[in-house]
């Protein structure tokens, strides 16, 4: 994930400008947190469960759940169900953004570039 000070549009069909102050604050708050950034990095290539993320990021499970809540509420991660043949389905988390651009030039603007998710992820909300 990149944080830049430019509002250049490279993928206009996937970009969303975040205008709501509460949404902007939630996103920036999540991005300033080292543990949240570790979770975002861990979900760069694959979806992971909370326990997998706790192990990968070396976090207590309770902390992992708090970070997952913050990231899903900010619209940076999405929760989906991992279907298992034994019927013990679990939640897994997928990163839904590629970039967050911050432009502090003329006012303040935050632009998010959303990922193009596989068809099975079409139900994941695409707005912040």
Automatic annotation (TrEMBL):
Spell out the Basic and acidic residues composition-biased ranges.
8-17
A Pfam family annotated for this UniProt entry: HTH_20
Chain intervals for the UniProt region annotation (Disordered) = 1-20
| InterPro entries in the record | WH-like_DNA-bd_sf, WH_DNA-bd_sf
Q: What is this protein called?
A: ArsR family transcriptional regulator
UniProt source species: Haloplanus aerogenes
Q: What is the lineage of its organism?
A: Archaea, Methanobacteriati, Methanobacteriota, Stenosarchaea group, Halobacteria
């Amino acid at each position: 994930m990149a944080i830049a000070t430019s509002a250049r549009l490279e993928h206009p069909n996937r970009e969303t400008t975040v205008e709501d102050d509460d949404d902007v604050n939630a996103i920036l708050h999540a991005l300033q947190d080292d543990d949240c950034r570790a979770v975002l990095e861990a979900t760069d290539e694959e979806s992971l469960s909370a326990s997998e993320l706790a192990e990968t990021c070396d976090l207590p499970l309770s902390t992992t759940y708090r970070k997952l809540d913050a990231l899903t509420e900010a619209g940076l991660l999405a929760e989906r169900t991992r279907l298992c043949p034994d019927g013990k389905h679990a939640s897994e988390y997928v990163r839904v953004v590629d970039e967050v651009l911050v432009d502090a030039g003329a006012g303040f603007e935050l632009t998010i570039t959303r990922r193009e998710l596989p068809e099975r992820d079409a139900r994941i909300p695409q707005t912040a």
